Task: structure prediction
Amino acid sequence: SPRTPSSARCDPSAAELCRRWSDPLQDAATASSHPLVRSHLRVGWLGLALFAALGTALEALHAWKSFEYLGVGNETRRLMWTLAHAHGIGLSLVQIAFAATVSLVRDLPQAPLQAASKLLHAAFALMPAGFLLGGVVTYGGDPSLGIVLVPIGALLLVVALGNVSWALLRR
Result:
């Protein structure tokens, strides 16, 4: 039998339930048109591709026994670049989770979400970049100055996660 629109199936006395439980495809299309959802899905999936490629490059350096990556005295570089890969993948997944939260949970306060969006984007750029730059040039066992981006990005991430948690609690 052909599918009837959700509005035609709903009893007017249950309008609120009908609004919440309408056609999932229509809801998905509406949710995906939200600018925050599109932005964070784009960044999240592109980030996954980028940092998966970085991980593959690191695996290749390992397979080829690259002295610049595996040589004695390059442990700091290896650690920094591995952390850049891991944090990039993790923060890409956080971007996708944020997009899913915004699209699935209705009527969240917009101010904390807008702030969280900006903070998540900044953390996504700063943390992996800090680790990556920290490993480009190392001084003995110490990373280069690029590592200062990491705690800044971490702080922004914690504030963003607090904003999202606050928005969900206030709902």
User: Anything to note?
Assistant: The CA atoms of residues 111 and 167 lie 9 Å apart. The two ends are 38 Å apart (CA to CA).
